[in-house]
Amino acid sequence: MPKLVTIDDETEFTNLIEGYFTPRGFEVFSANEGTGGLELIRRERPEICLIDLKMPGIHGDEVLRQALEFDPSIKCIMITASEGGGKTRDKLLQMGAYKCFDKPISSLKDLEKAIQEAVLL
Question: Which residues pair with 101 in a beta bridge?
Fold first, then answer.
């Protein structure tokens, strides 16, 4: 069973992800801030991480950097409501993000497809 860690300061979002992906065969772990998310990554060693960019405390780009430093094989999908447009997305992809999705996510099916592809890599 693939493990998925979702890190987002919006509990509604982490609950949505848990509710959607658990019945689809994923073991889902959630954190509502970056430090707790990094602890989950170290403890659970997930295949996939969903990381919100803007959070209190450690921002998502730093979580991404530390997660990939810990385990370069983790596929990190960034969720961003950033107004930086393409520059933010390009920076995150250069840092090693697997994919970026805009928030709010318009299609959980598209996110699921990206996660399924990442698990197969």
Answer: 79
**31-39: long-range contacts, CB 8 A cutoff, minimum separation 24:** 31/5, 31/6, 31/7, 32/7, 32/8, 33/7, 33/9, 33/57, 33/58, 34/7, 34/58, 34/59, 34/60, 34/62, 34/63, 36/7, 37/5, 37/7, 37/63, 38/63, 38/66, 38/67, 38/70
pTM score = 0.95
Report the amino acid identity of residue 2. P
Compute CA 57 distance to the chain's CA centroid, rounded to the nearest angstrom.
16
Give all domains of the chain, ordered by start, each with its CATH number. Answer: 3-120 (3.40.50.2300)
For the stretch 4-38, pLDDT in tens is 999 999 999 999 999 999 999 999 999 999 999 99
